[in-house]
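Hi everyone, sorry if this is the wrong subforum. Our group has a chain we'd like a structural model of before ordering constructs, and none of us has done structure prediction before. Sequence below.
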Amino acid sequence: MSVLLAAVFAYLLGSVSFAVLWSRVFDLPDPRTYGSGNPGATNVLRSGKKAAAILTLLGDLAKGAVAVVVVRALGVGDDGVALAAVAAFVGHLYPVYFGFKGGKGVATAFGILLALDLILATAVLAVFVLVILLSRYVSLASVLSAAAASVVSPFLFGWGAITGAVLAMAILVVARHRTNIQRLIAGEEATIHLRKPRSPVATAVTETSASRDPSGVER
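Answer:
Right subforum, don't worry. Here is the predicted structure as tokens:
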């Protein structure tokens, strides 16, 4: 498999939106239509269906990991693996199957890191869990985990193609969370809640209302 074909394969795999697919299976609203509008596990959790959120998380993790494992097994070298890693991640952000409107890529990025190096993935997961426990902010945990990956990667891989891929993904994660960062600074970011809402429809209405200021303008 050439490097270009490896990247195309990874992108197409990364473009599978498990948030949308599992929501359809469980007869839930499209995750792009309520809450944050992000087709990811955290937003699916707002529907009240924990099973759908867990399956979304596992699917997004798996597609990132599988892309790296398959491409690496085909022997394209570090350059090919790095390109495939970024391609799978970009596929999640801009999925060809769903109008190029995807999620923020945190779970997919972690799946990629897990396949790249267990030490790197463990360090990033430790930061994520610690920040969640201390702050309850998923967005803050995501941004700081991306920063942690950027710091740890050069010590494990040096300044080569793999570190370049990790840095690129970290930058994209932060960029995709720019509105969350603005809300964090303004003290308006929502914390994660595991309590089941009354219904998906009620959740959608609640989240939409919460995203507006008194004048009715969305934040």
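For your construct planning: The CA atoms of residues 113 and 121 lie 5 Å apart. Residues 3-194 form one domain.
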